[in-house]
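Many introductory courses stop at the sequence. We go one step further.
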Amino acid sequence: EEGLATRLVQMGVRTLDPHQRAQAARFGVEIIEMKDWRAGLELALAGPVYLSLDLDALDPAFAPGVSHQEPGGFNTREVIDALLTLQANVVGADVVEFNPRRDVGDLTANLAAKLVKEIAGLMLR
């Protein structure tokens, strides 16, 4: 809204209502829906990148400890591979939407820790 970011890309979106689509169009948000995702999909990300990894993007079979469980999301390998192949200057990041009350056997907690480690590796490249 304040023009601080030049580009916002959301990947792995599974549900969008008409209002959300309109808002995305209004603010120029690029959306890659899960139905359009393909392994090896490359984004040209120039300039400094802030990466926000929403654990809700993962399928609940791989990350049950999230606030909004929606089947049909990414599996663990797809997210790790996307991070490992990301060609960008990642200058900051967060991992969001972990809900320990819904987690099963610390599956999501352990995955979140792994993803934080992978993102830190990106930032140190």
